[in-house]
Design a protein that fits this description.
Layout lengths: L1 H18 L30 E4 L7 E6 L6 E6 L7 E5 L7 E6 L5 E7 L6 E6 L7 E7 L5 E7 L6 E6 L7 E7 L4 E7 L1 H4 L12 E6 L17 H6 L4 E8 L3 E2 L3 H10 L3 E7 L5 H15 L8 E4 L10 H17 L4 E6 H7 L2 H7 L1 E5 L11 H4 L5 E8 L8 E6 L3 H8 L5
Parallel strand pairs: 13-14, 14-16, 16-17, 17-18, 18-19, 19-20
Antiparallel strand pairs: 1-2, 2-3, 4-5, 5-6, 7-8, 8-9, 10-11, 11-12, 13-21, 14-15, 20-21
Helix pairs in contact: 5-6
Length: about 425
């Protein structure tokens, strides 16, 4: 506090001293002190501001103004001017955002005005699966070159339509597999010689004993209706099988065929069939075969289906033509899944037909009567090319007034039918 009082007093004394003195050290006439004008403070009057240094993007500018009275100069900063950038627009793409790039000549730059990516807009191409190739969908973006594949589907695998061609004596059987994609193959070849393996007598051992039956073995009532046979009595007599007459060219369906089939089946007998032909042309023999097929429909047969070719009225047709007729009939039945063979007698097989060819191609039911009660097949004399032997036409069965044709079978025909799926099996 004392210091402040001292300083204040000193200032007052100094001011009084100044007021008492003139500029040259003398007093004015009136005794007052004269103060020079230039010693008084200037009431500045500044002029317009003048730019001294232009502002730039990265630097302040400067401007100044001078007092009109004393010439005093003052200055101040000019703020930076705005950047003057160039503008580059980058539109959005499928995966990248859009934006505007601003860049000034000074090097200052920035991005703004951002836009959301569009996202891909896909076109899709569907490739369906095939039997051997997988399916998929291919996606291609409409706006860019991006693409990808997905949605895979396993290949379908072949879907075959299966056609089975039955073997005949002249053409092999096979199974043909055809897919809708046009791929196909054929396999499972079967030759009729495979089916006929062991078709002929390899020894004189009899496998089964049987008879053959037609209307002529039946009695009739007073109105000429055929009476049924006592099939149980036939079976009890030791008969294992029966070959039924199904029909003929002249009479059509044998009138006793249906009742005989039902009766023999009920008695547990194994059954085969024969058809007696009078046909004289290839067209006629084919008709016989188709008629017979209609008679067999819906039935099963453990024994073969035979063509009976022995009528004397046909002998004049000649060996080659008759043999071709046999072939037409038998192969047509074989192609429909039946085990077909030929019934004929020794004279026809030796002199009228082409026996060498027939024995090679077909199973033969051989009619030859040695006129003995229980004959034995003589391989040395007759050969061994047969499957069944009709050895008598005068067989007797207790309780029946008629005669029966008697037969021996030398092979298990039922096994063949089941193994190869023939005759309705």
């Amino acid at each position: 506090m004392k210091t402040r009082i001292f300083i204040f007093g000193f200032i007052i004394i100094l001011l009084l001293s100044l007021l008492s003195c003139s500029s040259d050290g003398s007093n004015t006439p009136d005794g007052d002190v004269e103060i020079p004008k230039e010693s008084l403070p200037c009431a500045h009057e500044f002029g317009e501001w003048q730019t001294v240094l232009e502002p730039e993007c990265n630097r302040l500018g400067t401007e100044e103004s001078a007092c009109k009275k004393c010439g005093k100069v003052v200055e101040r900063d000019l703020p930076c001017s705005l950047h003057k950038p160039t503008m580059s627009i980058y539109p959005p793409t499928c995966t990248a955002q859009g934006y505007t790039h601003y860049e000034c000549a000074c090097g200052y730059a920035y991005d703004s005005d951002f836009l959301t990516p569009y996202g891909h807009s896909f076109a899709k191409e569907v490739t369906e699966p095939t039997c051997t190739t997988e399916g998929f969908t291919h996606y291609t973006c409409r706006a860019c070159d991006y693409e990808y594949t997905s949605d895979y589907i396993d290949s379908l695998g072949h879907s075959f339509e299966v056609t089975t061609t039955r073997p005949t004596a002249t053409t092999p059987g096979c199974t043909t597999y055809v897919c809708e994609c046009s791929f196909s193959y054929t396999a499972d070849y079967v030759y009729y010689s495979d089916i006929l393996e062991n078709a002929y007598v390899g020894s004189s051992e009899v496998v089964a004993s049987g008879i053959d039956v037609s209307r002529w073995n039946h009695g009739t009532d007073t109105e000429d209706n055929y009476l049924p046979l006592d099939w149980k009595k036939i079976a009890d007599s030791g008969v294992d099988f029966v070959i039924l007459k199904a029909g003929s060219t002249k009479s059509g369906l044998e009138p006793t065929f249906e009742m005989d089939y039902e009766g023999a089946r009920a008695a547990g007998l194994e059954i085969g069939v024969y058809f007696y032909t009078y046909a004289t042309t290839l067209e006629g023999i084919e008709k016989d075969a188709r008629d017979l097929l209609s008679y067999l429909e819906g039935k099963k047969f453990e024994y073969p289906i035979y063509l009976d070719l022995e009528d004397a009225s046909l002998e004049a047709l000649g060996k080659n033509y008759l043999s071709e007729m046999c072939e037409r009939f038998i192969t047509l039945l074989q192609s429909e899944g039946y085990y077909a063979g030929l019934y004929s007698n020794h004279n026809w097989l030796t002199y009228i037909l082409d026996g060498a060819k027939i024995f090679t191609l077909y199973d033969v039911w051989y009619a030859r009567y040695p006129l003995t009660e229980k004959p034995t097949w003589n391989e040395q004399k007759y050969g061994k090319q047969l499957g069944m032997w009709q050895y008598s036409e005068e067989g007797k069965i207790d309780g029946f007034n008629c005669s029966f044709d008697l037969n021996y079978a030398y092979k298990n025909y039922k096994e063949i039918m089941i193994k190869w799926g023939l005759n309705g099996f």
